[in-house]
Amino acid sequence: MKMKYKLGGLLLAGTILGGALSATAEEATISIESWRSEDLAIWQDKIIPAFEASHPGIKVKFTPTSPTEYDASLNSRLAGGTAGDLITCRPFDQSLAVYEQGNLADLTNLEAMKNFPDVAKSAWSTDDGSVTFCVPMASVIHGFIYNKDAFKELGLSVPQTEEEFFAVLDKIKEDGTYIPMAMGTHDEWEANTMGYYNIGPNYWKGEEGRLALIKGTQKLTDKDWVDPFRSLAKWGAYLGDGFESQTYSDSQNLFTLGRAAIYPAGSWEISGFNTQADFAMGAFKPPVPVAGQDCYISDHTDIGMGMNAKTANPEAAKAFLNWMGSEEFASLYANALPGFFSLSKHSVKLDDPLAQEFVSWRETCKSTIRPTYQILSRGTPNLETEMGRVSANVIKGTVTPEDAAAELQKGLESWYKPQQN
Q: What is the pTM of this model?
Protein backbone atom coordinates (compact mmCIF):
# COMPACT_ATOMS: atom_id res chain seq x y z
CA MET A 1 0.00 0.00 0.00
CA LYS A 2 2.81 2.29 0.91
CA MET A 3 4.73 1.42 -2.28
CA LYS A 4 1.59 1.86 -4.32
CA TYR A 5 1.10 5.32 -2.80
CA LYS A 6 4.65 6.27 -3.60
CA LEU A 7 4.35 4.97 -7.12
CA GLY A 8 1.09 6.82 -7.57
CA GLY A 9 2.78 9.96 -6.28
CA LEU A 10 5.63 9.48 -8.70
CA LEU A 11 3.19 8.92 -11.53
CA LEU A 12 1.22 11.98 -10.47
CA ALA A 13 4.36 14.09 -10.24
CA GLY A 14 5.49 12.79 -13.59
CA THR A 15 2.16 13.64 -15.11
CA ILE A 16 2.28 17.18 -13.68
CA LEU A 17 5.88 17.66 -14.78
CA GLY A 18 5.15 16.32 -18.24
CA GLY A 19 2.20 18.67 -18.54
CA ALA A 20 4.36 21.59 -17.47
CA LEU A 21 7.02 20.73 -20.00
CA SER A 22 4.39 20.39 -22.70
CA ALA A 23 2.88 23.76 -21.80
CA THR A 24 6.31 25.38 -21.87
CA ALA A 25 6.96 24.00 -25.34
CA GLU A 26 3.60 25.17 -26.66
CA GLU A 27 3.22 28.47 -24.87
CA ALA A 28 5.43 31.55 -24.88
CA THR A 29 5.32 35.25 -24.20
CA ILE A 30 7.33 37.37 -26.61
CA SER A 31 8.05 41.08 -26.57
CA ILE A 32 8.59 43.59 -29.37
CA GLU A 33 11.16 46.38 -29.25
CA SER A 34 10.14 49.50 -31.20
CA TRP A 35 10.66 53.25 -31.48
CA ARG A 36 7.04 53.74 -32.61
CA SER A 37 5.75 54.68 -29.16
CA GLU A 38 2.80 56.55 -30.70
CA ASP A 39 1.57 53.22 -32.13
CA LEU A 40 1.14 51.51 -28.75
CA ALA A 41 -2.67 51.58 -28.81
CA ILE A 42 -2.79 50.24 -32.36
CA TRP A 43 -0.64 47.25 -31.44
CA GLN A 44 -2.48 46.55 -28.20
CA ASP A 45 -6.00 47.00 -29.57
CA LYS A 46 -5.75 45.70 -33.14
CA ILE A 47 -2.59 43.91 -34.23
CA ILE A 48 -1.70 41.78 -31.21
CA PRO A 49 -5.29 40.55 -30.57
CA ALA A 50 -5.54 39.43 -34.21
CA PHE A 51 -2.31 37.42 -33.94
CA GLU A 52 -3.17 35.89 -30.58
CA ALA A 53 -6.57 34.82 -31.88
CA SER A 54 -4.93 32.57 -34.45
CA HIS A 55 -1.96 31.60 -32.25
CA PRO A 56 -3.56 30.90 -28.84
CA GLY A 57 -0.35 29.58 -27.27
CA ILE A 58 1.63 32.78 -27.83
CA LYS A 59 1.25 36.05 -25.97
CA VAL A 60 2.79 39.25 -27.35
CA LYS A 61 3.87 42.44 -25.60
CA PHE A 62 4.65 45.67 -27.44
CA THR A 63 7.27 47.56 -25.42
CA PRO A 64 8.29 50.75 -27.25
CA THR A 65 10.99 53.26 -26.40
CA SER A 66 10.85 56.93 -27.37
CA PRO A 67 12.32 57.47 -30.86
CA THR A 68 15.23 59.61 -29.67
CA GLU A 69 16.32 57.00 -27.12
CA TYR A 70 15.58 53.82 -29.08
CA ASP A 71 18.92 53.13 -30.75
CA ALA A 72 21.05 53.67 -27.65
CA SER A 73 18.73 51.82 -25.28
CA LEU A 74 18.28 48.91 -27.70
CA ASN A 75 22.03 48.49 -28.10
CA SER A 76 22.40 48.56 -24.31
CA ARG A 77 19.73 45.90 -23.81
CA LEU A 78 21.19 43.73 -26.56
CA ALA A 79 24.62 43.95 -24.94
CA GLY A 80 23.13 43.11 -21.54
CA GLY A 81 21.01 40.23 -22.80
CA THR A 82 17.72 41.86 -21.81
CA ALA A 83 16.39 42.92 -25.23
CA GLY A 84 13.04 41.72 -26.50
CA ASP A 85 12.45 38.73 -28.76
CA LEU A 86 11.52 40.85 -31.78
CA ILE A 87 13.39 43.96 -32.87
CA THR A 88 11.78 46.70 -34.94
CA CYS A 89 14.30 47.57 -37.65
CA ARG A 90 15.21 50.91 -39.13
CA PRO A 91 16.16 50.68 -42.82
CA PHE A 92 19.68 50.07 -44.12
CA ASP A 93 22.89 50.74 -42.21
CA GLN A 94 21.59 51.00 -38.64
CA SER A 95 19.96 47.56 -38.77
CA LEU A 96 22.80 46.15 -40.86
CA ALA A 97 25.18 47.10 -38.04
CA VAL A 98 22.94 45.33 -35.50
CA TYR A 99 23.01 42.20 -37.69
CA GLU A 100 26.78 42.34 -38.19
CA GLN A 101 27.21 42.56 -34.41
CA GLY A 102 25.44 39.19 -34.18
CA ASN A 103 22.27 40.58 -32.62
CA LEU A 104 19.78 39.88 -35.43
CA ALA A 105 19.04 36.39 -36.74
CA ASP A 106 19.35 35.39 -40.39
CA LEU A 107 15.77 35.28 -41.73
CA THR A 108 16.61 34.62 -45.37
CA ASN A 109 14.78 31.28 -45.46
CA LEU A 110 11.80 32.36 -43.39
CA GLU A 111 8.61 31.30 -45.16
CA ALA A 112 7.21 34.85 -45.07
CA MET A 113 10.08 36.23 -47.17
CA LYS A 114 8.59 34.82 -50.36
CA ASN A 115 5.81 37.40 -50.04
CA PHE A 116 8.15 40.38 -50.49
CA PRO A 117 9.92 41.69 -53.62
CA ASP A 118 13.68 42.23 -53.68
CA VAL A 119 13.41 46.02 -53.59
CA ALA A 120 11.47 45.73 -50.30
CA LYS A 121 14.02 43.36 -48.78
CA SER A 122 16.99 45.50 -49.87
CA ALA A 123 16.66 47.75 -46.81
CA TRP A 124 17.29 44.79 -44.50
CA SER A 125 19.75 42.71 -46.49
CA THR A 126 23.52 42.50 -46.63
CA ASP A 127 25.20 44.48 -49.39
CA ASP A 128 25.46 41.41 -51.64
CA GLY A 129 21.82 40.48 -50.98
CA SER A 130 22.71 37.00 -49.69
CA VAL A 131 21.20 37.46 -46.22
CA THR A 132 17.97 39.17 -45.16
CA PHE A 133 17.61 39.84 -41.44
CA CYS A 134 14.31 41.71 -41.02
CA VAL A 135 10.82 41.17 -42.42
CA PRO A 136 9.73 44.29 -44.36
CA MET A 137 6.74 45.95 -42.71
CA ALA A 138 5.91 49.21 -44.43
CA SER A 139 7.01 51.95 -46.77
CA VAL A 140 6.15 55.59 -47.26
CA ILE A 141 5.38 57.02 -50.70
CA HIS A 142 6.32 60.47 -51.98
CA GLY A 143 4.06 62.74 -54.00
CA PHE A 144 2.00 65.91 -53.63
CA ILE A 145 -1.04 66.48 -51.42
CA TYR A 146 -3.35 69.25 -52.60
CA ASN A 147 -6.33 71.25 -51.39
CA LYS A 148 -9.24 70.00 -53.50
CA ASP A 149 -11.38 72.99 -52.59
CA ALA A 150 -8.69 75.38 -53.80
CA PHE A 151 -8.27 73.46 -57.06
CA LYS A 152 -12.04 73.53 -57.66
CA GLU A 153 -12.25 77.22 -56.80
CA LEU A 154 -9.47 78.08 -59.27
CA GLY A 155 -10.58 75.62 -61.96
CA LEU A 156 -7.38 73.59 -61.80
CA SER A 157 -6.78 70.03 -62.98
CA VAL A 158 -4.28 67.61 -61.47
CA PRO A 159 -1.03 67.92 -63.45
CA GLN A 160 0.38 64.87 -65.22
CA THR A 161 3.52 66.40 -66.72
CA GLU A 162 6.14 68.80 -65.45
CA GLU A 163 4.90 71.46 -67.88
CA GLU A 164 1.37 71.12 -66.52
CA PHE A 165 2.73 71.20 -62.95
CA PHE A 166 4.38 74.59 -63.40
CA ALA A 167 1.33 75.89 -65.30
CA VAL A 168 -0.83 75.03 -62.25
CA LEU A 169 1.64 76.76 -59.94
CA ASP A 170 1.61 79.84 -62.17
CA LYS A 171 -2.20 80.03 -62.04
CA ILE A 172 -2.26 79.73 -58.26
CA LYS A 173 0.41 82.42 -57.92
CA GLU A 174 -1.35 84.72 -60.36
CA ASP A 175 -4.66 84.41 -58.49
CA GLY A 176 -2.96 85.29 -55.19
CA THR A 177 -5.47 83.65 -52.85
CA TYR A 178 -3.15 80.81 -51.91
CA ILE A 179 0.58 80.21 -51.60
CA PRO A 180 1.20 77.78 -54.48
CA MET A 181 3.31 75.31 -52.45
CA ALA A 182 4.04 74.97 -48.74
CA MET A 183 7.67 74.04 -48.22
CA GLY A 184 10.61 75.77 -46.56
CA THR A 185 14.36 75.31 -46.72
CA HIS A 186 15.28 76.10 -43.11
CA ASP A 187 15.46 72.43 -42.04
CA GLU A 188 17.13 71.39 -45.32
CA TRP A 189 16.06 67.73 -45.18
CA GLU A 190 12.69 68.67 -46.68
CA ALA A 191 14.41 69.97 -49.80
CA ASN A 192 15.86 66.59 -50.72
CA THR A 193 13.27 64.31 -49.08
CA MET A 194 10.12 65.98 -50.46
CA GLY A 195 11.90 67.74 -53.32
CA TYR A 196 14.77 65.97 -55.05
CA TYR A 197 13.83 62.41 -54.01
CA ASN A 198 10.19 63.10 -54.85
CA ILE A 199 10.60 64.17 -58.48
CA GLY A 200 14.00 62.59 -59.20
CA PRO A 201 13.07 58.93 -59.89
CA ASN A 202 11.25 59.98 -63.07
CA TYR A 203 14.59 61.28 -64.36
CA TRP A 204 17.04 58.57 -63.28
CA LYS A 205 14.51 55.78 -63.94
CA GLY A 206 14.15 54.54 -60.40
CA GLU A 207 16.09 51.43 -59.51
CA GLU A 208 18.00 51.52 -62.80
CA GLY A 209 19.66 54.79 -61.90
CA ARG A 210 19.98 54.14 -58.18
CA LEU A 211 21.82 50.86 -58.69
CA ALA A 212 23.98 52.39 -61.43
CA LEU A 213 25.10 55.06 -58.97
CA ILE A 214 26.09 52.37 -56.48
CA LYS A 215 27.97 50.43 -59.18
CA GLY A 216 29.70 53.58 -60.37
CA THR A 217 28.36 53.36 -63.92
CA GLN A 218 26.45 56.63 -63.45
CA LYS A 219 27.59 59.82 -61.76
CA LEU A 220 25.70 62.59 -60.02
CA THR A 221 26.91 64.95 -62.76
CA ASP A 222 25.08 62.92 -65.44
CA LYS A 223 22.04 64.57 -67.02
CA ASP A 224 19.56 62.22 -65.30
CA TRP A 225 20.81 63.42 -61.91
CA VAL A 226 21.27 67.11 -62.76
CA ASP A 227 17.86 67.59 -64.41
CA PRO A 228 15.90 67.13 -61.16
CA PHE A 229 17.95 69.98 -59.69
CA ARG A 230 17.05 72.10 -62.73
CA SER A 231 13.37 71.47 -62.01
CA LEU A 232 13.86 72.07 -58.29
CA ALA A 233 15.55 75.40 -59.01
CA LYS A 234 12.17 76.72 -60.21
CA TRP A 235 10.39 75.92 -56.94
CA GLY A 236 11.57 78.96 -55.00
CA ALA A 237 9.28 81.26 -56.99
CA TYR A 238 6.21 79.39 -55.68
CA LEU A 239 7.00 78.84 -52.00
CA GLY A 240 5.87 82.21 -50.67
CA ASP A 241 7.69 85.02 -48.90
CA GLY A 242 10.27 83.99 -46.32
CA PHE A 243 10.43 80.32 -47.30
CA GLU A 244 14.15 80.39 -46.55
CA SER A 245 13.43 80.61 -42.81
CA GLN A 246 10.31 78.44 -42.88
CA THR A 247 10.51 75.24 -40.80
CA TYR A 248 8.91 71.86 -41.42
CA SER A 249 6.15 72.52 -38.88
CA ASP A 250 5.57 75.97 -40.43
CA SER A 251 4.94 74.29 -43.78
CA GLN A 252 2.56 71.75 -42.28
CA ASN A 253 0.58 74.53 -40.62
CA LEU A 254 0.42 76.66 -43.77
CA PHE A 255 -1.15 73.79 -45.65
CA THR A 256 -3.54 72.45 -43.01
CA LEU A 257 -4.77 75.98 -42.25
CA GLY A 258 -5.76 76.30 -45.91
CA ARG A 259 -3.24 79.00 -46.81
CA ALA A 260 -1.31 76.91 -49.37
CA ALA A 261 -2.76 74.91 -52.25
CA ILE A 262 -0.12 72.18 -52.64
CA TYR A 263 2.15 70.37 -50.19
CA PRO A 264 5.18 68.35 -51.45
CA ALA A 265 4.59 65.35 -49.29
CA GLY A 266 5.41 62.03 -47.84
CA SER A 267 2.46 59.76 -47.15
CA TRP A 268 3.35 59.80 -43.45
CA GLU A 269 1.51 63.13 -43.27
CA ILE A 270 -1.90 61.57 -43.96
CA SER A 271 -3.05 60.78 -40.41
CA GLY A 272 -2.02 64.16 -39.06
CA PHE A 273 -3.48 66.11 -41.98
CA ASN A 274 -6.77 64.19 -41.70
CA THR A 275 -7.24 65.53 -38.17
CA GLN A 276 -5.96 69.05 -38.80
CA ALA A 277 -7.34 70.10 -42.19
CA ASP A 278 -11.00 71.04 -42.58
CA PHE A 279 -10.99 70.87 -46.38
CA ALA A 280 -11.05 67.99 -48.86
CA MET A 281 -7.61 66.70 -49.87
CA GLY A 282 -6.32 64.82 -52.85
CA ALA A 283 -2.92 63.59 -53.97
CA PHE A 284 -1.07 63.43 -57.26
CA LYS A 285 2.08 61.55 -58.17
CA PRO A 286 5.28 63.31 -59.28
CA PRO A 287 4.60 64.66 -62.78
CA VAL A 288 6.66 63.07 -65.53
CA PRO A 289 9.12 65.30 -67.44
CA VAL A 290 7.70 64.23 -70.82
CA ALA A 291 4.16 63.08 -71.58
CA GLY A 292 3.86 59.36 -72.18
CA GLN A 293 7.07 58.29 -70.47
CA ASP A 294 7.14 55.61 -67.78
CA CYS A 295 6.55 56.90 -64.26
CA TYR A 296 8.52 56.10 -61.14
CA ILE A 297 7.71 56.75 -57.49
CA SER A 298 9.80 56.89 -54.34
CA ASP A 299 8.19 54.03 -52.39
CA HIS A 300 10.70 54.12 -49.58
CA THR A 301 11.27 51.24 -47.20
CA ASP A 302 10.64 52.62 -43.72
CA ILE A 303 10.22 49.91 -41.09
CA GLY A 304 10.85 46.18 -40.65
CA MET A 305 10.93 43.52 -37.92
CA GLY A 306 13.77 41.18 -37.01
CA MET A 307 14.42 38.46 -34.46
CA ASN A 308 16.83 38.81 -31.56
CA ALA A 309 19.53 36.24 -32.32
CA LYS A 310 19.58 35.32 -28.62
CA THR A 311 15.83 35.04 -28.05
CA ALA A 312 14.71 32.25 -25.74
CA ASN A 313 11.57 31.87 -27.87
CA PRO A 314 12.74 31.45 -31.46
CA GLU A 315 9.77 29.37 -32.63
CA ALA A 316 7.20 31.79 -31.22
CA ALA A 317 9.13 34.74 -32.67
CA LYS A 318 9.26 33.07 -36.09
CA ALA A 319 5.53 32.36 -35.90
CA PHE A 320 4.89 36.08 -35.44
CA LEU A 321 7.29 37.03 -38.24
CA ASN A 322 5.65 34.56 -40.62
CA TRP A 323 2.25 36.02 -39.72
CA MET A 324 3.65 39.44 -40.61
CA GLY A 325 3.97 38.17 -44.18
CA SER A 326 0.25 37.41 -44.33
CA GLU A 327 -2.49 39.35 -46.05
CA GLU A 328 -4.22 39.74 -42.67
CA PHE A 329 -1.29 41.62 -41.15
CA ALA A 330 -0.76 43.72 -44.28
CA SER A 331 -4.38 44.89 -44.22
CA LEU A 332 -4.45 45.48 -40.46
CA TYR A 333 -1.25 47.50 -40.36
CA ALA A 334 -1.88 49.59 -43.47
CA ASN A 335 -5.40 50.54 -42.36
CA ALA A 336 -4.39 51.22 -38.77
CA LEU A 337 -1.63 53.59 -39.94
CA PRO A 338 -2.79 55.33 -43.15
CA GLY A 339 0.24 56.37 -45.16
CA PHE A 340 2.42 53.45 -44.05
CA PHE A 341 1.96 50.92 -46.81
CA SER A 342 2.49 47.18 -46.78
CA LEU A 343 5.60 46.06 -48.65
CA SER A 344 4.20 42.59 -49.31
CA LYS A 345 2.91 41.31 -52.64
CA HIS A 346 -0.62 41.06 -51.23
CA SER A 347 -3.24 43.39 -52.64
CA VAL A 348 -4.55 45.49 -49.76
CA LYS A 349 -7.69 47.60 -49.90
CA LEU A 350 -7.32 50.76 -47.84
CA ASP A 351 -10.20 52.51 -46.12
CA ASP A 352 -8.59 55.96 -46.20
CA PRO A 353 -9.16 57.53 -49.66
CA LEU A 354 -5.99 59.64 -49.55
CA ALA A 355 -3.87 56.62 -48.61
CA GLN A 356 -5.58 54.59 -51.34
CA GLU A 357 -4.69 57.28 -53.88
CA PHE A 358 -1.00 57.12 -52.92
CA VAL A 359 -0.78 53.35 -53.00
CA SER A 360 -2.68 53.12 -56.31
CA TRP A 361 0.37 54.60 -58.04
CA ARG A 362 2.11 51.25 -57.59
CA GLU A 363 -0.22 49.85 -60.25
CA THR A 364 1.01 52.20 -62.97
CA CYS A 365 4.47 53.32 -61.81
CA LYS A 366 7.65 51.49 -60.87
CA SER A 367 8.82 51.73 -57.27
CA THR A 368 12.24 52.74 -56.07
CA ILE A 369 13.82 53.95 -52.81
CA ARG A 370 15.76 57.05 -51.83
CA PRO A 371 19.09 56.81 -53.67
CA THR A 372 21.41 57.86 -50.84
CA TYR A 373 20.13 55.41 -48.22
CA GLN A 374 21.89 52.22 -49.30
CA ILE A 375 25.72 52.22 -49.12
CA LEU A 376 26.26 55.75 -50.47
CA SER A 377 26.05 57.63 -47.15
CA ARG A 378 28.64 55.65 -45.19
CA GLY A 379 31.55 57.99 -45.77
CA THR A 380 32.54 61.60 -45.14
CA PRO A 381 31.11 63.83 -46.44
CA ASN A 382 27.82 62.05 -45.83
CA LEU A 383 25.87 62.09 -49.10
CA GLU A 384 22.44 62.14 -47.44
CA THR A 385 23.30 65.14 -45.27
CA GLU A 386 24.96 66.94 -48.17
CA MET A 387 21.98 66.26 -50.42
CA GLY A 388 19.72 68.18 -48.03
CA ARG A 389 22.05 71.16 -47.83
CA VAL A 390 22.68 71.33 -51.56
CA SER A 391 19.01 70.82 -52.52
CA ALA A 392 18.02 73.68 -50.22
CA ASN A 393 20.63 75.92 -51.80
CA VAL A 394 19.38 75.08 -55.29
CA ILE A 395 15.84 76.08 -54.30
CA LYS A 396 17.12 79.30 -52.72
CA GLY A 397 19.09 80.06 -55.89
CA THR A 398 22.45 80.34 -54.14
CA VAL A 399 23.99 77.51 -56.19
CA THR A 400 23.30 76.35 -59.75
CA PRO A 401 22.02 72.83 -60.45
CA GLU A 402 25.26 72.03 -62.27
CA ASP A 403 27.46 73.24 -59.42
CA ALA A 404 25.30 71.41 -56.89
CA ALA A 405 25.73 68.11 -58.74
CA ALA A 406 29.46 68.68 -59.15
CA GLU A 407 29.85 69.37 -55.42
CA LEU A 408 27.99 66.20 -54.48
CA GLN A 409 29.95 64.12 -56.99
CA LYS A 410 33.27 65.43 -55.70
CA GLY A 411 32.32 64.51 -52.14
CA LEU A 412 31.18 61.02 -53.10
CA GLU A 413 34.29 60.37 -55.17
CA SER A 414 36.51 61.35 -52.26
CA TRP A 415 35.68 58.17 -50.35
CA TYR A 416 33.60 55.82 -52.53
CA LYS A 417 35.82 53.71 -54.77
CA PRO A 418 33.29 52.69 -57.47
CA GLN A 419 32.82 56.41 -58.21
CA GLN A 420 36.57 57.03 -58.60
CA ASN A 421 36.78 55.57 -62.11
A: 0.88
